[in-house]
Amino acid sequence: MSNFIIHKAEQRGHAQHGWLDTFHSFSFANYHDPEKVHFGVLRVLNDDTIEGGMGFGMHPHDNMEIITIPIYGGVHHKDSMGNSGIINSGDVQVMSAGTGIYHSEENANAEMDLKLFQIWIFPNKKNVTPRYDQKTFEVKDRINKFQQIVSPMGEDEGLNIHQDAWFSLANFNKDFETTYQIKKPGNGVYVFVIEGSATINNQKLNKRDAIGISAIQSISIKADTDAQILIMDIPMAI
Fold it and tell me: Taking the model in full, what pTM does it have?
């Protein structure tokens, strides 16, 4: 029998820091909910809006897999590995923090807001050499199908991370129905509705709602409106 939790959009943690408007699906910074510390190896899912020209200065990370998905605008990234550049909407960025990195993330445009998701995954290997990668994904390749954007080390499809995790984006037309097959026995899925509404395993989700499901082999998805969905297929044991 499957297990599931529903995380409604309005029940997320929220902080307004002037230039930063952020929602936390899991405990983060000053927001703490003992019922929402992590889902399997998924530790952080932040939904950030950053004012033009503003951002996070240099700050450290270690032993975490970090995935950044801009949905509007571009992120100007710099890090202690020597990487510097813009990650635009349509791109995905991954970093293995490993033994330790510093990086900064700023809105690349002074005139418009930047909207992005930042996700942290516990790695399956500690103290690795830090690494960085990014890739542009075509939106047309996710219409009514799953576009794999993140995968375990050594796989060809998507950006690699140090974890048996697979991320997929999908843009479904209204009334489209499909099934998602879990990639690895024992993994669960955390499904986050970016836009629109969808029914996942008979549970109705609206914009920015999420469902975490474990002890299953597949899930059913029906788009109740045109819908953008992020699926995170992840180990449940840390």
Answer: 0.96
